[in-house]
């Protein structure tokens, strides 16, 4: 079992409030977030961006380990993730996480690549955590 932690602080309330996010590792240290960073494109981060980063990283790592288990030890994986936040009644809900994988893996068939990527999408811990539609576009160079 592994555990990780992060913290968030928010001063003021609603649209006028300002927050900061920090992680145990220090990768994020008092990173600003709030209404402006979430809905108005202001500098800083927001929860959905952090979810997208976590999902892209988790899926890519799961794919990498599955490829290694299948005997592939050379190649490149690049994943983009777009998380969609939609209105849900009086609040909001994450409704989609769209993964897009571009890979270069010498010696793998299209079928094996697709099977490994699809399995990673279904079984990476962040995919399992999310309560939304998860999609995957994949392309194999060469």
From TrEMBL:
Superkingdom field: Bacteria
One GO BP annotation of this record: response to oxidative stress
GO molecular function, one term: peroxidase activity
InterPro entries: KH_dom-like_a/b, OsmC/Ohr_fam, OsmC/Ohrsf, OsmC_Ohr_Peroxiredoxin, Peroxiredoxin_OsmC
Matches recorded under Pfam families: OsmC (PF02566)
The protein, known as: OsmC-like protein
SUPFAM superfamilies: OsmC-like (SSF82784)
PANTHER family to which the protein is assigned, alphabetical: OSMOTICALLY INDUCIBLE FAMILY PROTEIN
């Amino acid at each position: 079992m592994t555990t990780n932690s992060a913290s968030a602080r928010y001063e003021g309330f609603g649209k006028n409030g300002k927050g900061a996010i920090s992680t145990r590792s220090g990768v994020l240290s008092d990173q600003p977030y709030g209404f402006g960073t979430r809905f108005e494109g202001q500098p800083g981060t927001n929860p959905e961006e952090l979810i997208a980063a976590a999902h892209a990283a988790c899926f890519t790592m799961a794919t990498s380990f599955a490829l290694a288990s299948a005997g592939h030890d050379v190649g490149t994986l690049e994943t983009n993730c777009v998380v969609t936040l939609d209105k849900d009644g009086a609040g909001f809900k994450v409704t989609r996480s769209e993964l897009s994988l571009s890979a270069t893996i010498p010696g793998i068939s299209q079928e094996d690549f697709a099977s490994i990527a699809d399995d990673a999408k279904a079984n990476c811990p962040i995919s399992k955590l999310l309560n939304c539609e998860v999609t995957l576009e994949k392309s194999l160079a060469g």
